[in-house]
Amino acid sequence: MDNATILQNLKKHFALDPQTSKVLVVGIGSTGISVAHFLRKLGFKFAITDSRPSPPLLHEFFEMMPDTPVFTGGFDEPAFKVSTHLVVSPGIALNEKAIIKAIANGTQIVSDIDLFACSDDAPIIGVTGSNGKSTVTTMLGEMAATAGLRVAIGGNLGIPALDLLNQHAQLYVIELSSFQLERTSALKAAAATVLNISADHLDRHSSITDYAQQKQRIFNGDGTMVLNADDPLVAAMHEPDRTALTFSIKKPADFHLAWHGNEEYLMQGTTPLMPLAALPLEGRHNAANALAALALGTAVGLDSQAMCNALRNFKGLEHRMQKVADIRGITWINDSKATNIGACVAALEGYLDKVILIAGGEAKGADMNELKPVVCAKAKSVVLMGKDAPLIEQALAGCVPVYSASNMNEAVKIAASLAKTGDSVLLSPACASLDQFKNYQDRGNKFVKAVMELAR
C-alpha cells in the first residue's frame, strides 16, 4: 500500500494527520521503536516516553533517532497533555494515571495493530487465546509457505506487526495478546480465532469475563470466525450472522478427531486429512492446535494437502512441550511457556500415564485451586519452586506428594531422584517466570541446562 493511501486510512479511522497530530509513543521497547520508524516514515511529529530511567533499547533508539524528544524515568505529564494521540505499547497498562488523564482530556488511543491494519492490503489471519497461539501462528506460517505463498508472521510472537510490512507479504499471520487487543479497533482479519480461554493476566484484567471480552475483539469485522467447540467461553462468542468454523478434539465439528479404519485421524467433516500419529508433537492439545490451524488455513483458501505436509514436518517450538532428552529411560519435557494454569492443565491432560511435574513461579493473581483436579489425576508427584509455590502446595492439599526446591538445578535433581524408568518429568510451571528468571525462555534454558548436566 502506498503512503498516500495509508495516510488517508489513518485520517479516516483515527483523525491522524502529519500536519496537525502530535503523537506520543508510550514505551521504548521493540513495539515502540517499530511505531517510531512507522511514524517517521510518514512524516508525523512525535515524541516517545518510558517510565523506566534506562530502558534496555534506549541507546539504540538514540542512535537511530537522535532528534526525537525522549522522556524517561516517569511519565512526563506535559508530554501527555499536548498529545492528540497515544500509541501505548502492550506491556503498559491503560490504567496508568497519566494515560487515564489524557483520555479524559480527549487524547485518542491508537495501537500498533491499528496502524498495521490501516497499512496492509493483504489478508490477515489473527490468532489469540490463553494457550497455543504461538504454535498455531507458526504452524500457519509453515502451511502458507508450503502452499507457495509469501507469508509474514509476527505480532506478539517475535517481529512487531509494523515491521512485517517491509516483507510485502501475500498473507500475514498475526499473534495477538489480550493487551494488544484491548487497545485495537481497526483490525478486520480475513479469519481469526480465540483458541481457548483460561485464567491469565488477572493482575491486569479485572476478571476472566473482562479478559475474554478483550480476546473477543479479534473477531471485529466480518471475517471467518474459528471457534473451539470444546471451550464454552469461546463457543459462546459465535455470532449467528457470521461465517464460522469449529474445531474439537472431543466431539464432531467442522475440524475434529475421529477413527478411520484402525487409526485416529485429523478430519475435515467426514474427510480424513492425516493420521494423528503423523503429527510430530507431544500431547493431544497439539492436535487441537493443528485442527485450529487447518480451519484457519481453509478459511483463507490454503490447499489442504500442503497444510498437511507442513504439519507432518512441523517440529514445534522451543519451551512448548519440547522433548529435551531421554536419560536412563526417563523422558524430560520443557514446557516453560506454560505461564498460566490452562497451559499446564492442557499439558498434563495430554498424558495417558502419570508424570512428575515441576511447577511454580509467579501466579499473576490466578486461583491455583483450579490445578488440583488435573494434578491429582495426572501427576505422581510435584516439585515446586518460586514465589507462589506455597499457594500451589496449599491448593493441592496433599493429593500428591509435594517437594520444595529453591532453584531449577535443585528441582531437576529432586525430580531425577523420584523418577523411574518409563517416567516423564514435565516442566510446566502454571506461573509466570519473572520472580526468578528473565523470562520463560530463560527458565526453559536453565531447565535444559540442568537436564543435560544430569546426562553428563
What do you see in this structure?
By secondary structure, the protein is an alpha/beta fold. The chain folds into three domains: 3-110, Rossmann fold, CATH 3.40.50; 115-312, UDP-N-acetylmuramoyl-L-alanine:D-glutamate ligase; 322-455, Protein-Tyrosine Phosphatase, Chain A (Alpha-Beta Complex), CATH 3.90.190. It has helices at 3-14, 30-41, 58-64, 77-82, 97-104, 112-117, 133-146, 161-164, 178-181, 208-216, 232-235, 285-299, 304-312, 341-349, 372-378, 389-396, 408-418, 440-455, and strands at residues 22-26, 45-49, 70-71, 85-88, 108-110, 124-128, 151-155, 171-175, 191-194, 224-228, 244-248, 255-260, 263-268, 271-275, 322-327, 330-334, 355-359, 379-384, 402-404, 424-427. Strands 7-8-6-9-10-11-12-13-14 form a nine-stranded mixed sheet. A six-stranded mixed sheet has the order 15-16-20-17-18-19, sandwiched between helices. A five-stranded parallel sheet has the order 3-2-1-4-5, sandwiched between helices. The radius of gyration is 23 Å and the shape is globular. The model has no long low-confidence stretch (mean pLDDT 93).
